[in-house]
Design brief:
heterotrimer, A mainly alpha, B mainly alpha, C alpha+beta, A: mainly alpha, Four Helix Bundle (Hemerythrin (Met), subunit A), 6 helices, 76% helix, B: mainly alpha, 70% helix, 0% strand
């Protein structure tokens, strides 16, 4: 049964990712991407990593794709269809893709995968303890560094968004008298 | 007293005894799917009727009272009408996305009710990250709304979808934070385990002030997340005709309508599970006789009693408060709900650190 | 700064008080919903329903016990009517005598065009009144002659 689900999910992911790259409509690409990310979450649930699956759904499918769709809706010309690219470009891109795929398969064949027993259910307590542990193999420092990075990004976004507004105001005030 | 675990297991054993493992698993899945689809449809029908009746009583009207006893068959008649209607597709719409959108919304709503524990052992999917999964899946519905609004090729639908997107993305945060406050108290994300922690008292009683604050913050934020009044801007009739489902008709419209009402049930069910003790009966301290009588009532009854109380509260909100403007809506979230939630979270953390929780 | 924090919480508490006030009113409504319902289930309670004094309905010409009306055909109602639902029709040419005029007079009243403004009722004599009851089962009863 699990094998069947695995193959179905793989087929869905492969076909949808191809479609999302090849589709000429902007919003459809985003929707196919949504399908791909949801199917990947399905993989996580299949192997018992429920937490990772839920995070995948929240962050990627529910967060990032929604933001992508939202920003697409905000842009002009959402009906716009991409023009069919020139044949020379298609050929070059196709060749590069095939070369990359061949290299990847070669690399995979060279390495041997070892079989890992998956725990029945990933334990949340160990996950939390490891994530917020200051010592002994814990990840508190990277966690905090990443949060500082995110804070910096947020402040930067606010500054960028606010500066233009104040400049406009001051220029208008100067022009007024 | 009532435990459905053995009952459910006996059904599973019976199926496995009769058929080969593969067929038995497939049969179990089919059974679960059928039960939940039936539940989905029945919930929709009942809730639509209750909503119309209660709304009418709030406004001193009568509501539907012609078809069947006191109008109970009205929604069945409406459903039949919707089934027989022609599904119109807009000429210049993006056909694929137009047809896909109702299914995404239905899928999200159905997946979420599969996690709700109706009684001990009566739960389809008892995952150990239950609450996180609910928050994750309920955030998928917005994709359906955005697609519906865009692919209808209608400006009202598009505006409704944009409003809905902004609303859901911002209010999701408050829902998550208020549930996180409760997770601090319960110490687990698994829904059945959360109910087990309330065996000696519901969290809204033994969780002190933070639990009460979190309950109302959760209720407000999740009403906004499921686009219900007073936060029903995405489908504000007076401004946007019907919002994101303006162009839908017949069965596809019914999907949106049903998903909306089932989402209402889900929100009430989660509030019940986390704050009001799920299917736990109502107990008062040391009154052994009273408690024994309360224990006698089956847990499903308790569950639906609490859920309907929360739903009634939501309807009360809807038919009392006027609809918010979009700027008021965002101000409410970012200026009031978010800071209050964060303060509440820190307060609860201190409480838990001191060991004062139940 | 403390002032601002105080104002913030005061605002929240005042808002909550306002919301609770609103909910108390609607709660009162639903608690007494059975008694106070305003809706009239009209065709069913036709016999018991007592109509309000200021109700404006279909217009009828008043008749005395001998089934005679006092309309002189002054056309005041026709002039007053905003959308021409009343029309005074004369059988012209055949009536030299004033006394016989009345029988030849035929006011036509189209119910479906009438907006029930009751402007026509204000004609000099108490000739017309607004009558309760606008249900018609056939198309032919819409135009009254």
């Amino acid at each position: 049964m699990e094998k069947i689900i695995f193959y179905i999910l793989s087929a869905v992911i492969l076909s949808l990712s191809l479609m999302s790259v090849l589709s000429r409509k902007l919003l459809r690409s985003a929707v196919y991407l949504f399908g791909v990310l949801t199917a990947i979450a399905g993989f996580y649930f299949l192997i018992g990593y429920h937490f990772l699956g839920a995070v995948q759904l929240t962050v990627y499918a529910g967060g990032i794709v929604v933001l992508i769709i939202f920003s697409i809706l905000l842009t002009h010309e959402i009906d716009h269809q991409m023009p069919t690219p020139e044949w020379s470009r298609v050929a070059v891109a196709g060749a590069l893709c095939v070369a990359g795929a061949v290299m990847f398969i070669q690399l995979l064949q060279g390495s041997l995968f070892s079989r890992v027993e998956v725990p029945e259910q990933s334990d949340l307590n160990t996950l939390g303890n490891t994530l917020l542990n200051p010592g002994g193999g814990g990840y508190l420092l990277p966690f905090e560094v990443v949060s500082i990075l995110l804070l910096a990004v947020m402040i930067g976004a606010i500054v960028i968004a606010k500066q233009r507004h104040s400049v406009d105001n001051s220029s208008q005030e100067k022009q007024a008298p | 007293m009532y435990d459905f675990t053995t009952f459910v297991q006996s059904i599973g054993n019976f199926l496995h005894g009769q058929f080969s493992p593969g067929v038995a698993t497939a049969l179990e899945w089919t059974l679960v799917i059928l039960i939940y689809l039936a539940l989905y449809a029945i919930l929709g029908l009942v809730l639509v009727y209750v909503e119309r009746r209660v709304c009418a009583f709030f406004q001193l009207r009568l509501g539907p009272n012609r078809v069947g006893w006191a109008g109970t068959a009205q929604t069945v008649a409406d459903a039949l009408k919707l089934l027989l209607k022609e599904p119109v597709t807009v000429n210049k719409a993006d056909k694929l996305l137009f047809n896909l959108a109702p299914f995404i919304i239905t899928l999200a709503a159905l997946t979420v009710i599969s996690l709700v524990p109706f009684a001990k052992g009566l739960q389809a999917f008892d995952i150990n990250i239950g609450l996180l999964f609910i928050v994750a899946v309920s955030s998928l519905g917005v994709v359906g709304i955005l697609l519906a609004g865009w692919s209808s090729n209608n400006k009202y639908a598009l505006i409704g979808a944009m409003r809905s997107g902004a609303q859901i993305v911002s209010y999701e945060l408050s829902v998550g934070l208020s549930l996180l406050t409760m997770v601090l108290l319960t110490g687990t994300l698994q829904l059945s385990a959360i109910i087990e922690t309330q065996a000696n008292g519901w969290w809204i009683f033994k969780g002190h002030v933070p639990a009460v604050i979190a309950f109302f913050l959760y209720l407000t934020a999740s009403i906004a997340e499921i686009n219900r009044g007073p936060f029903d801007l995405p489908e504000a009739e007076s401004e946007l005709t019907a919002g994101f489902h303006t162009e839908y008709s017949g069965l596809k419209f019914a999907f949106f309508f049903l998903a909306e009402f089932v989402n209402m049930f889900t929100v009430a069910a989660i509030a019940t599970t986390v704050f009001l003790g799920g299917w736990m009966p109502f107990h008062i301290g040391d009154w052994a006789g009273f408690n024994a009588v309360m224990d006698f009532l089956p847990p499903i009854f308790w569950f639906f009693l609490k859920v309907s109380a929360v739903i009634f509260l939501m309807m009360w909100f809807k038919w009392t408060f006027p609809r918010l403007r979009i700027d008021q809506l965002l101000k409410l979230e970012w200026k009031y709900l978010m800071p209050l939630n964060l303060m509440n979270l820190v307060f609860t953390a201190i409480l838990v650190y001191l060991g004062w929780h139940g | 700064m403390f002032r601002a924090i105080y104002e913030y919480f005061k605002e929240i508490l005042l808002a909550i008080r306002g919301l609770i006030n609103g909910m108390r009113i609607t709660g009162k409504y639903i608690a007494h919903a059975r008694k106070e319902i305003i809706t009239q289930e009209y065709p069913d309670n036709r016999d018991t329903l007592k109509m309000f004094d200021r109700f404006r309905g279909e217009v009828v010409l008043l008749h005395n016990e001998n089934n005679e009306h006092r309309c002189t055909g002054c056309s005041a109602c026709e002039v007053a009517c905003p959308n021409g639902s009343i029309e005074i029709i004369w059988r012209a040419g055949k009536t030299p005598r004033r006394a016989k005029r009345k029988s030849r007079l035929r006011p036509s009243y189209t119910t479906c065009r009438c907006v029930r403004c009751a402007t026509c009722v204000s004609c000099r004599a108490p000739l017309m009144r607004s009558k309760w009851g606008m249900i018609s089962n056939t198309r032919f009863s819409i135009v009254r002659n």
